[in-house]
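Subject: design request, 176 residues
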């Protein structure tokens, strides 16, 4: 891991460049998954903190590991999974939901970095960029897949749910 020493240098403590690149890749991918489902990723990051896969104690994000936080976020994520299937749910590309996904992607990227004692800025930015890619790319892919199967949205929406949940779980479990 890299620990800030209080000077304008970083002290390497067991984390090589490949590990740092992997962390950044995970931050970006978690952002992409946030573009698909915006509450699923923080819910699973919170579970990772609660289960001590991510060590967020004594960081600004330690509240993610509090006893109630993963349950609250899980209920909200379940609500999002249901709301996504409703006909009047706004597009993820509309300004409010789009901005929300960028913020949450950055938040989740920062959480991964804090959980591994890394500086959060780069991971947060990569999470935000991933959220932009996931929002726009996920929307486009969903529309194309719906068209390819004859206009049926529900199977593709459920597939998108599975990708967001499974991918997020896969990423956060790597920190155990």
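Subject: RE: design request

Done. Sequence follows.
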């Amino acid at each position: 891991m890299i620990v800030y020493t209080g000077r304008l240098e970083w002290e390497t403590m067991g984390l090589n460049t490949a590990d740092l690149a992997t962390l950044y890749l995970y931050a970006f991918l978690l952002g992409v998954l946030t573009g698909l489902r915006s509450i699923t990723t923080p819910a699973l990051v919170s579970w990772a903190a609660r289960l001590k896969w991510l060590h967020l104690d004594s960081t600004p994000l330690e509240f993610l590991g509090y006893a109630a936080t993963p349950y609250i976020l899980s209920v909200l994520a379940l609500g999002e999974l249901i709301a996504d299937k409703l006909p009047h749910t706004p597009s993820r590309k509309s300004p409010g939901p789009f901005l929300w996904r960028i913020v949450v992607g950055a938040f989740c990227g920062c959480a991964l970095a804090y959980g591994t004692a890394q500086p959060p800025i780069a991971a947060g930015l990569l999470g935000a960029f991933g959220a932009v890619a996931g929002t726009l790319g996920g929307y486009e892919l969903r529309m194309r897949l719906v068209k390819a199967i004859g206009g049926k949205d529900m199977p593709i929406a459920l597939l998108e749910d599975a990708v967001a949940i499974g991918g997020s779980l896969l990423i956060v479990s790597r920190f155990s």
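The first strand starts at residue 2 and ends at 4.
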